[in-house]
Amino acid sequence: MSATIAGLLTGLVLGLAAAFGGFGAFLIVAVLGGLGLLVGRVLDGKLDLSRFTDRERR
Q: What is the DSSP string of 8-58?
């Protein structure tokens, strides 16, 4: 899926949440969408979190 299609779908979902659920639902959908994006990038190997989880600090 291209970034354009993903951005379009994200915008549509956030718009529907704002229209039918109000601002609170919009914020919840936005936060969970961002969290899902982070998890997806980690699973795809495009985001490396090892510097945050490294036990040995230099």
A: HHHHHHHHHHHHHHHHHHHHHHHHHHHHHHHHHHHHHT-S--HHHH-SS--
